[in-house]
Design brief:
There is one protein chain. This protein is mostly helical and about 300 residues long. It has ten helices and four strands. The strands form two sheets. Strands 1-2 form a two-stranded antiparallel sheet. A two-stranded antiparallel ribbon has the order 3-4. InterPro entries: DHMBA_Reg_Transcription_Factor.
């Protein structure tokens, strides 16, 4: 049977065994002091490691806390640059990269069953009914897994914005801390925003102001049908779970106009059937966005002409 213990656990057990074998002998010589120092280090390290969660959701929450902390520091850095020096700017960039790598490792390590599947080629009618962004939409095992994935994406989007803002304000950081420039962070953020948009049909189905809840349809993987429990959950909370990630994408400085207009239309859908106040369409005075029971059309508004 393969020993599944960490190497550090083996070192700790070995050091403790050495101490027990010494009996009543004192620890005044250098070798004994090294053993004691090693034991202290392992015990403290083990305690600290236990503070890091092992579950996928626990680890994501831990990374979210780190994102919040570094976001506050970066914003203070950008607002009050006199409080920071060049070394601290580099340290911030390295921290951003480290947390982002942790998020990518999180995605790599999650169960395969959590990963979304792309729906097959969609007809124009399906794309219209489900308000798809582009030509595809993603299918998940459950509403909650889709929500976890969107939480992951919004964390990475926030990190791309922070890195982009630092490099835009302090271009010299590129050469010392990170291997890519502002454009790379824009591309990553926009790809993640595309992925959030691709989750909307799964979480909202064909809901709209003219669609009765009993007639709402939700997409499913080819050859399967959503269970009644999944359908009920999506009806109850699917739209609510989208508000936070869509708002993060909408307010992201790296979102492109095509994405922003589409996201505004989806938030408008949510506010329409949940009777929420406010409208995101006011952000687009030069566009006419039409929302009805079958789809959304976005066209350039005609310029008014004087006589």
């Amino acid at each position: 049977m393969v020993d599944q213990r960490r190497p550090s656990d083996t070192h700790l057990l070995g050091a403790l065994q050495l101490i027990s074998l010494r009996g009543k002998k004192n620890f005044s010589n250098k070798a004994s002091q090294r053993i004691l120092a090693g034991v202290h280090s392992e015990i403290v390290g083990k305690a600290l490691r236990r503070q890091h969660p092992n579950s996928a959701m626990g680890l994501l929450n831990y990374l979210a806390e780190r994102v919040a902390n570094v976001q506050a520091t970066v914003r203070e850095f950008l607002d009050r640059p006199s409080l920071f020096d060049d070394a601290q700017a580099n340290t911030l960039m390295v921290s951003l990269l480290e947390i982002d790598r942790g998020l990518m490792d999180w995605e790599f390590a999650i169960p395969d069953a959590w990963r979304p599947e792309q729906a097959g080629e969609l007809s124009k009618a399906n794309r219209t009914a489900f308000h798809t962004y582009g030509m595809t939409m993603d299918i998940y095992k459950s509403v909650w897994i889709a929500n976890i994935y969107n939480c992951f994406r919004t964390l990475r989007i926030l990190l791309q914005v922070l890195a982009h803002d630092i490099i835009r304000s302090y271009p010299w950081v590129i050469a010392t801390a990170l291997p890519c420039g502002p454009l790379a962070y824009s591309c990553i953020a926009q790809r993640l925003i595309d992925e959030v948009c691709a989750s909307v049909p799964f979480l909202m189905g064909n809901r709209g102001p003219l669609v009765h809840p009993a007639n709402v349809l939700f997409p499913a993987a080819e050859g399967s049908v959503p269970s009644m429990a999944d359908r009920h959950t999506a009806l109850q909370v699917g739209a609510w779970l989208l508000l936070a990630p869509l708002n993060t994408c909408f307010t992201c400085d790296l979102v492109d106009m095509r994405q922003k207009i589409w996201i505004a239309s989806q938030i408008e859908r949510i506010t329409s059937f949940h009777n929420l106040p406010g409208s995101y369409y006011s952000c687009f005075p030069n566009w006419q966005i039409n929302l009805d029971g079958t789809g959304i059309s976005v066209v350039a508004a005609k310029a008014s002409t004087g006589v």
